[in-house]
Amino acid sequence: MTKRIKIVVAGPRGNMGREAVQLVAKTDTFDLVAVVDSRNDGKLLEDVEGFSGLSVPVYTDMQNCFEQHQADVLIDLTSPAFGRKHMEIAFANGVRPVVGTTGFSDEDISELRKMAEEKGLGAIIAPNFAIGAILMMKFSQLAAKFLPDVEIIERHHDRKLDAPSGTALKTAQLIAEVREAKKQGNELEKEELAGARGADFEGMRIHSVRLPGLVAHQEVIFGGEGQTLTIRHDSMNRASFMPGVKLAVETVLKIDTLVYGLEHIIE
């Protein structure tokens, strides 16, 4: 008999959080044991608008939640301000975090990886859970070996807090692994308006667009002699991220370190 995975979801009222709650509720091998929210403490989730039939308790304090309920995995889809704190509480309680929050620094990731390994627990931080976006990043890394001149344009909804996106940064980091840093464009170019050329990552330019109506979109544009190559991914809704969340939950139970980026587990 397959062991059921006991899951706590943090951030259930957000767009991603709502999708994750539904994913856990409809997956035969997952059990939703509680949610952690910034409000509604003491209520049942079914008493919150949009969660009919889900009679699991709501907590505002994550430590209290873990003291009251045994959990295997925390799915955290909150905000950069809470992501690291929630991971530390999860580790302290023997719970394996799967985190979709972006905004982690290299130092954060290094320190959290050390905590995970000291506890012998798996953890996954994914800038993007969409399988197509992960393939876009991997394809871009391959293309950069042959076409090293590249710029990234990422487009997101206007409620997104960080810029550039975690996906854009991760893409640039993967490309940098196979490409020597170089200044792109005319060496004498001048920005008539500061920021016009976008952010600079080892010579690559990253441009962030924030508009209502968008979800998550990115194109990586390569230029070569007489040719261009564009690799693009579009998420039309948050359901596109759920297969990746499911894969991360199932994988985090099998590892004992922190993995940053879903590309490391889809192979």
From TrEMBL:
| Residue span(s) of domain Dihydrodipicolinate reductase C-terminal | 132-265
Q: HAMAP family, from UniProt?
A: DapB
Q: Show the Gene3D superfamilies listed in the entry.
A: Dihydrodipicolinate Reductase, domain 2 (3.30.360.10), NAD(P)-binding Rossmann-like Domain (3.40.50.720)
Q: Where in the cell is it found?
A: Cytoplasm
UniProt-listed InterPro entries: DapB_C (IPR022663), DapB_N (IPR000846), DapB_N_CS (IPR022664), DHDPR_bac (IPR023940), NAD(P)-bd_dom_sf (IPR036291)
Q: Name one Pfam family in it.
A: DapB_C
Question: Pathway involvement?
Answer: Amino-acid biosynthesis; L-lysine biosynthesis via DAP pathway; (S)-tetrahydrodipicolinate from L-aspartate: step 4/4
Q: Where is the Dihydrodipicolinate reductase N-terminal domain?
A: 5-129
Which of this chain's residues are annotated to bind NADP(+)?
39
Main EC class of this protein? oxidoreductase
E.C. number(s) listed in UniProt: 1.17.1.8
> Taxonomic classification, please?
Bacteria, Bacillati, Bacillota, Bacilli, Bacillales
Write out the function statement from the record.
Catalyzes the conversion of 4-hydroxy-tetrahydrodipicolinate (HTPA) to tetrahydrodipicolinate.
The answer to whether the entry has keyword Cell division is no
- CC per GO annotation: cytosol
Q: How does it assemble?
A: Homotetramer.
Q: Does the keyword Repeat apply?
A: no
What protein name is recorded for this chain? Answer: 4-hydroxy-tetrahydrodipicolinate reductase
Under Gene Ontology molecular function, one entry of this record is:
NAD binding
